[in-house]
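TICKET: design request
STATUS: open
ATTACHED STRUCTURE:
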């Protein structure tokens, strides 16, 4: 019987710039590296916990310390691994997904097959990705936009008392399409409507999480009002009713660290499409390791926000890349296709 050893360690990623959203600022992303080894093959995974969901680097490693790898009886039965992880209780989703990620990576390497082939993906090429510009001082924004020159779509973080000033400043240096992420920053319906009226003439293609997740009736009213696509982010962890979300948003933003599973993410894509929702794959601040796992899911999505590894210094891994049209593509390597950067 194949016996696995599990290793995990802090993976502290330093950002290129202080990254600010409506709730916090950070200079380091405290992630976790997971390694699952058997038969001389190492499968890799990465956790990127988020305090918004009551998770941290410490809570991830504490959960992983409890996991007994002897429960992996058949390494090719990923469903059994997911069932076993659930016996440890709900929550800790950002700790669970890198374990599944590492097992999938191990399976692909063991078979000598890229995961996108193993999953019978339509292609190894996904949607275009955006490039995120965090909240910053007004005078610094033109330089931040300049850094994003190679990317045809900008994602702009809002949720401040100077949101219109931010957009006006950006529009002095570029006319690129923009995606907005308010991160629950607009606290009432009239504020959200006022911002959308302004943004409707600014070549804005979508708005993520305009208001707090708890404001379901207001979000439903805003969906009816908005000429711009609205996407659920904080409102969607993967355990809500997609039918109810379809009353409040035009689409959902999947993040592996919230769903807790690649396999579960695929199921949610199918449920979301059945409910008439558009599908976006997003990320936390992650290295190319976790972002490549998300890139696999992107092959079935409408939109991709997979720039987490572009926001950090000294990415320790190589994996997903972008073609001349800025579409995500996966390398033709066994497993996830991620290798250490030398």
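STATUS: resolved
RESOLUTION: sequence designed for all positions
ATTACHED SEQUENCE:
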């Amino acid at each position: 019987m194949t016996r696995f050893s599990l290793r995990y360690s802090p993976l502290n990623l330093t950002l290129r710039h202080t990254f600010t959203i409506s709730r916090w600022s950070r200079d380091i992303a405290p992630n976790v590296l997971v390694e699952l080894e058997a038969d001389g093959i190492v499968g890799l995974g990465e956790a990127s916990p988020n305090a918004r969901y009551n998770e941290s680097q410490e809570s991830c490693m504490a959960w992983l310390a409890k996991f007994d790898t002897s429960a992996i009886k058949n390494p090719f039965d990923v469903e059994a691994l997911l069932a076993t992880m659930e016996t440890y209780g709900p929550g800790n989703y950002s700790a669970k997904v890198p374990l599944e990620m590492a097992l999938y990576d191990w399976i692909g390497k063991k078979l000598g097959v890229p995961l996108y082939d193993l999953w019978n993906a339509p292609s190894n090429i996904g949607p275009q990705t955006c490039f995120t510009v965090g909240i910053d001082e007004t005078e610094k924004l033109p330089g931040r936009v300049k850094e994003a020159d190679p990317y045809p779509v900008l994602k702009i973080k809002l949720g401040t008392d100077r949101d219109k000033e931010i957009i006006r400043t950006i529009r002095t240096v570029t006319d690129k399409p923009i995606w907005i992420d308010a991160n629950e920053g607009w606290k009432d319906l009239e504020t959200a409507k006022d911002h959308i009226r302004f943004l409707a003439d600014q070549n804005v293609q979508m708005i993520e999480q305009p208001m707090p997740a708890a404001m379901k009736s207001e979000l439903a009213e805003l969906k009816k009002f908005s000429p711009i696509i609205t996407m659920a982010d904080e409102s969607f962890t993967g355990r809500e009713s997609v039918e109810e979300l379809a009353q409040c948003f035009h689409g959902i933003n999947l993040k592996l660290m919230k769903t807790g599973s690649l396999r579960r993410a695929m199921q949610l894509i199918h449920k979301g499409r059945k409910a008439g929702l558009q599908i976006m794959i997003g990320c936390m601040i992650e290295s190319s390791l976790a972002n490549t796992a998300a890139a696999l899911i992107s092959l079935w999505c409408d939109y991709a926000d997979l720039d987490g590894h572009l926001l950090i210094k000294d990415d320790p891994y190589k994996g997903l890349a972008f073609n001349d049209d800025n579409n995500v593509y996966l390398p033709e390597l066994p497993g996830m296709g991620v290798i250490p950067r030398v």
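CLOSING REMARK: The chain has a mean pLDDT of 95. The chain has two domains: 5-112, 118-340.
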